[in-house]
Design brief:
Helix 1 crosses helix 3, helix 9 packs across helix 10 and helix 12 crosses helix 13. The protein has 17 helices and 14 strands. By secondary structure, the protein is α/β, with parallel strands linked by helices. The longest helix has about 30 residues. The relative contact order is 0.09. The strands form two sheets. Strands 3-2-1-4-5-6-7-8 form an eight-stranded mixed sheet, with helices on both faces. Strands 11-10-9-12-13-14 form a six-stranded parallel sheet. It binds uridine-5'-diphosphate-glucuronic acid. Uridine-5'-diphosphate-glucuronic acid binds next to helix 9.
Length: about 425
Amino acid sequence: MKIKIAIIGTGYVGLTTGACFAYLGHKVICVDKDKKKIVKLRKGKVPIYEPGLNEILKKHKKNIEFSVNIGNAVKKSDVIFICVGTPPEKDGSINLDQFKESVRDIAQSLDCYKVVVNKSTVPVGTGDWTKKEIIKYYSGKFSIVSNPEFLRESSAVKDFLEPDRIVIGLEEERPKEIMLDIYSSINTPKIITDIKSAELIKYTANAFLATKISFINEIANICEKAGGDVKKVAEGIGLDKRIGPKFLDAGIGYGGSCFPKDVDGLIKIADRKKYNFKLLKAVSAVNIIQQRNFLKKIKNILKKIDGNTICVWGLAFKPNTDDVRKSSAVEITKQLQKLNFKIQAYDPVAMENAKKELLKKNIRFCKNPYEAARNADVLALLTDWPEFSEINMKKIVDIMRYPYFLDGRNQFDPNELKSIGFYYEGIGRK
Ligand code: UGA
C-alpha cells in the first residue's frame, strides 16, 4: 500500500530514508529548514557522497518532493518521520534542540490522526516527552513510534533496503499495521517492542559494536607486546558464531558521527540514572589511546631517521565516504601538524571536508597517492580506501625518501610490502 510520508531532516538518515521509501513506492515529502539544501535537492543535486543515493533519487523522483514547509508536509502526510541530528554536547550529553523544535513544529500542524515516528538517536524516555509535548499543542488523536535506524554511511541505501532487522517501538495497536505496511516489501525480522526498549536498542547496538572494536584493539596491543597477529586472532574467534567475524578489524580507533557520540551518550544516560557504566567508559578511553599509540609509532620512526615529512593516505572516518566527523585520521593528522611535521595528504573524496577541520599550516593536499608519497619519510595509511590496494607499491617505495609504511588499518600484506623493500608496521601484527 502506498503511504504518504513526511521526512523531517535531510541528513544521511533523512535523505536515505526518503529516497528508499520513494523506491518502495510511497509518496514522500522531505523537509529541511536549510533552503539552499532544498533548492539543490530539487535540482537533483545530492549534498552528500553516498553510493547509490543519487541514482535512486533520480529514478524515483515522481514519488519524492522537497520542501522547507514543515506544516504543509505534515498536513499532506499520514506518517511523519523525524530524522534530525542529535549532536553531542561537550560533556557527552545529547543536544535535543533540533529534535524538540521538530516535535513542536509537527504538533502545531497536526489536524487529524497521524503517526509521528522518531528515527533520530535519542535518550531513552524521549518518546514520553514527545507525547506530552504534542498534547500541549494538539488535542486530537495521534500515535508515537520509535523506529531506530541502523544504516551505515557508505552503504546506507543497501543497509536500509536489506537490513538485518527493523525495530518498531510502540505503545498501542493502531500504528502497528501502518508501520508494517510501510516496510511490507522488506523481508526481514520485524521486532515489535515498547518505545523505551526501541530507544535503547539503538544505543546498545552502537555501543556494543564500539566495544567489539576497542576489545580487538586491546588484543592488537597485546599482540604487539607478546607476538601473534591480530588479524589471525580475529579470524580465529570470528568463526565462532556466537562472536561473529564483523567489527573485529583492529586499527587507529573508531570515528564518525555515531560511535563516539553514542558511546558517550549512553555513558551519560547511565550517569543520569546514577549507574556507572564502567565497561563503556573503558571502551571510550581505549579508543583515544589507540589514536595516540599510532601517533607515537609515527613519531618514533621519524625520530629514529631524523625525518619530518609524512605522507598521509586517507582522511575520511572510514572508506567510501567524504565524512570526516570525529575521524581518527583527521585527529592524528592534526596532532602531527601541531608537532610541526610536514604532511602530504591524499584522500579520494574527503579532502575538501578535511580542509575545514585541519590546521592551515604544515600540510599540502595532493592530487593522487603518488604525489603524496614523493620524498616522504614515512607513509601513514589512516583510512582503508579500496583504491589503495590497487596502487603500484614498487613505485611508491622508489619515490619515498625512506621506505617506512605504517598501516593504521592493516590493509596491506606485511610480507608483500617487506619483499619489495618496505619497513612495515601495522596494528597488532608482527
Ligand atoms: C554506525 C553503525 O555501524 C550503524 O549501524 C549506525 O546506524 C550508525 O553508526 C548510526 O548510528 O547512524 P557508521 O558510523 O556509518 O555506522 O560507520 P561504521 O561502519 O559503523 O564505522 C564506524 C567506525 O568504526 C569507523 O571509523 C570505522 O573505521 C571503525 N571500525 C569499524 C573499526 O575501526 N573496526 C571495525 O572492525 C569496524
